[in-house]
Design a protein that fits this description.
Helix content is about 35%, strand content about 20%. The chain is of the alpha/beta class. Strand 1, helix 1 and strand 2 form a beta-alpha-beta unit.
Length: about 100
Amino acid sequence: MMNQPITTRKILVVDDDPVIRDMMADILDFEGYATRVARNGYEALQMLRGEEDFLVFLDIMMPGMSGKEVCAVLQREPELRKRHVIVLMSFLAEDLVTILEPYMR
């Protein structure tokens, strides 16, 4: 039996890797969430500007417009500022310090 989601909020999965993006969407769909996908930051912003409220699963490292750049736009635009974002990233363990350094100051 499928679990019932706590909320009916839509979820937007943003990832340039089709395997990860589709796997996440499939899992969320199976759990009963209304899920949409975007292949990059530009598509994500277009959806966020044109749709109701989404919870966003956002890949931080994408070509074109990175997840960090998407977050900067979300902060600049008042109508998008209240979006909830869960940041996703994959990295090599030795890259962790480089990735987190700007946030540790």
